[in-house]
Task: structure prediction
Amino acid sequence: MRKIISFMHISLDGFVAGPNGEMDWIKVDEEIFDYAGKRISEGDTALYGRVTYEMMEGYWPTAGDKPTATRHDIEHSKWYSKVHKVVLSKTMEGADLTYTTIISDNLSERINEIKRQAGEDILVFGSPTATHSLMELGLIDGYWLFVNPIILGQGIPLFIDVKEKIKLKLLNTIRTFTCGVTELNYIVDRQ
Amino acid sequence: MRKVIAAINMTLDGFCDHTAIIPDEEMHQHYADLLSKADTILYGRITYQLMEYWRTLAKSPSGEKSMDDFAVVMDSISKIVFSHTLKNIDWHSAKLSNQPIEEEVLELKQQSGKDILVGSRSLIIQLMKLNLIDEFQLCVHPVIAGNGLPLFENILEKTTLKLVKTKTFSIGAIILYYEPTKK
Result:
């Protein structure tokens, strides 16, 4: 069965955004784009919460066409247009969206259905609210984290309402980047 | 000048909870080496009382080499304990501090000697606020605890650090080494 992996940039104290959703502290440079882009482009399905999805929709479909587009913009834009997008939202309607599935209820059932389909592991791009819902139902199988060298002090935590200890396995692909970010790659150890 | 090093274990969700952590031989060896490269360690009461466990082991070894080695260095390193409730302590290598932590640390830094370790969450928080930590060695264990005492409790100010290096362990823990970016 394919895995659902939470892909997040986090602060050293475990926040994914500031108190008002600030993400200006997140370091993403060419080196990280290149590295993360490799794994991302292997995916055939991407999972988003509504807010993140709307941000993506507002940027990626045309990002590759801009005169200032970088190589990364062009590549990711191309990938984005083809990838199967799964969006968790209680309010969106989108029967006519191409390559897009909206999940508004029966989260466990619908996600497990997708997990049972053949394909690559599915990354959840940011999307803290969706990630929390998935986490609560035990649907997250791994964490792919880019730990920024900063203590934010306050903000939106990656982990909330974790009722029972979750054991993890660190995968040995640990990498550090020149800008001071450390990649941590875990899978949930369900033994 | 000798460095003040905050060396502590935490879970991936940022809590200090020694029960969520299962150290192995490799980790005990690492910390025995760290202690032997320093000559003083600062503790709050709670961590100090936890560490008294090693005192017994130093007297009557368990037979497990990495544990016994760690007990020996823990027994010999000089410990300074900060507590309002403890009146006296009788571990030969430990003494109660009789002054505020800021003064104690500034005084220690003026003296010659090896690095100074800070092994308690509460002291790390206090020293962070005083800008007195020169290096962080945060050992992140592969577990999400869900609750506990947050390492960076009440640190409300954004603090940028400089990544120095990392070290991974076979149990899936990783130590992140950071330095402050400015004083």
User: Anything to note?
Assistant: The longest strand of chain B covers residues 159-168. The longest helix of chain B spans residues 45-59. Chain B has a mean pLDDT of 94. The radius of gyration of chain B is 16 Å.
